[in-house]
Amino acid sequence: MSSKESRKRSNRRSHKKPKCSTSTSSITDEGSNGSSSTDDYKHYRFRKGEYIKDYKVRRHISDGTFGRVLKVRRKSSKSYAMKIVRSNHAESAQQEADILFYLKKKDLNRYFVEIIDSFYHRGYYCMVFERLGPSLYDMLRMNQDRGIPMNLVRCISRQLLKCIGYLHDIRLTHTDLKPENILFSRIRELKKGQNDLYLPADHKIKIIDLGGAEFDDEDHNCIINTRQYRAPEVQLQCCKWDYKSDVWGIACIIFELYTGHLLFQTRKNEYEHMALVEKITEQNFPYWMASNVKGSLKYCFNTKNVTNGKYYQWPQGTTTKDSILKVQNQKTLREMILDPLLRDLLQKMLEIDPNKRISCFQALDHKFFCN
């Protein structure tokens, strides 16, 4: 699969249990000036100029699965983004709002999107956010799958690890880290700069989409994350995942910033995905993971008749030739990352065994960030 094909939106769907999320479009300032869309069913029907609580509707920004987003302005104040949630997602939206207000109370809104207000209006749950700039995904898309300068890779990676490290300190795991959910904090367009790349004027980032975030002591969903950023312990369901799953996702994002394309270029094929994990990282699944696999992947692991410590039996009889060739031709991380310090950092963040994987703050102590 080419890197161009890998960036199609259909490839990046989340397989996690649906929860309300603050998608990129919910807090950026892109969209139409219209007052409706082709998908108005169950969306709030608004009028330009009307007041929702004390917020005046300026224009329509976008519509999503969970709700409609409007640009609003409070009297004698600045503009905000208001998400009006569909009625069948109100409970999940309230859970996300609770998390965002909790982070704000902890003074972590410096690193995560700031929620301004939440309330019910005519039976619809409304969430008001600060407006942010374009996402990392927007930047990668505009640069047509070309990596960004190393100094910017380092700057964004440092911030990302710091932001999520603080989240982990309060025993909260994000569960859906990907370029779409990392936004530049300033409402400015990306402009052409070094090597004709579209780059931000201000490098500061903020994290969005806390709709799936879970505390350590909560019951965990079996499957989290979009597949391309999903840690192997989550896919195998071999243990109760924890904050280390976020670290894996961050490593995938850092790789993507450096190269311009996805690390794991796979779609719905979980068997191929796990084969790519072993090939790219040059590791085998450890015995404890192989012997505790649940779900359909369980039948691909053999812990009895083992050669060379390889428990994952792939390809299977039903594996397609295209899939076999794809894995065979896949380059390793060592071959794709030429910078020795960045390669060593990613190798430590992409340990298949979550018990050996470094934390966010351990990653920040790596020599890659000493420059």
Automatic annotation (TrEMBL):
Keywords: ATP-binding, Kinase, Nucleotide-binding, Serine/threonine-protein kinase, Transferase. Residues 20-38 have a biased composition (Polar residues). This is Protein kinase domain-containing protein. Residues 55-369 form the Protein kinase domain. Gene3D superfamilies: Phosphorylase Kinase, domain 1 (3.30.200.20), Transferase(Phosphotransferase) domain 1 (1.10.510.10). Residues 1-39 are annotated as: Disordered. Residues 1-19 have a biased composition (Basic residues). One of its GO terms (biological process) is regulation of RNA splicing. SUPFAM superfamilies: Protein kinase-like (PK-like). Pfam families: Pkinase (PF00069). It comes from Paramecium tetraurelia. The keyword Transferase applies.
